[in-house]
UniProtKB/TrEMBL annotation:
Protein name from the UniProt record: Oxidoreductase
Keyword NADP in record: yes
Lineage: Bacteria, Bacillati, Actinomycetota, Actinomycetes, Mycobacteriales
InterPro entries documented for this protein: ADH-like_C (IPR013149), ADH-like_N (IPR013154), ER (IPR020843), GroES-like_sf (IPR011032), NAD(P)-bd_dom_sf (IPR036291), Zinc-ADH_QOR/CCCR (IPR051603)
Source organism (scientific name): Mycobacterium cookii
Keywords assigned: NADP
Amino acid sequence: MIRVDAASVNPSDVKNVAGAMDWTVLPRTPGRDFAGVVVSGPPEWTGIPVWGTGGDIGFTRDGSHAELIAMPVEALVRKPERLSFDEASAVGVNFVVAWYGAVETAALSGDETIAVFGVSGGVGGAVAQVAHALGATVIGVDRRPPAVDTPAAAVIDDFVVFDPAADVVEAIKRRTGGRGADVVYDAVGGVTTPAALAALALRGRLVVISAVGSPSVEINLLDLYHNETRILGTDSGKLTAVDSARRLEAMAPYFESGKFRPLPIAATYSLDDAAAAYQAVADHTAGRVVIRP
């Protein structure tokens, strides 16, 4: 049993309480990400600050927007000392899906170039930090650059504006000597898919985690196989709390060293004001929104 000191609110939490996640088993306490202290369990864990996330938490297992949360012992991970409870609670799903997609699924290497669509968002910003830590060249793509006080702004090597008046593909090709990006991590999807595919280098890998607008897109199969393109779907919802714990363990040294930093905390709320916290995320508040039970 963990006392929840801080729990961030993710867009997926908002969708969940709105009824958009049809796999959620009701009744259910929502909330995916958390940081707190073990108050009951094995003696070696009692009193230890921990952090966690998972695709089951808040969906098929009661979540973190509560005073207490019950977790399997195998899901316990020590919170990095460098991070406050608020900061640790804001890492979760953003960094787990970033690591899962870039490192494990796309197998990004340090001598490659990655274009991150949606780099100003939570996941995109986390991908940029992960890629930079690996030594890769990072091209950010979004409607506007990351704010100067965000971690992503400090690690991207170049930026391309995504808007109807801009030729995103030409801009990425120009910045890669005509090759294109070895990996495109598309944290938006749907409206960005045509440009994401066209921006790939020979044998490039496209990582897809979302679909904005229409879930269906047209793909030119001739271009696809001539370029030997690989399209890789990544779903953080398939990673349980135990699965996610292994990723958080792998990333913890990066947070302890300061190489990885969560997005700034934009606002904090009490548990009684949780509805206002959800509304803030629904209103696209910049930065992370945290509930302090």
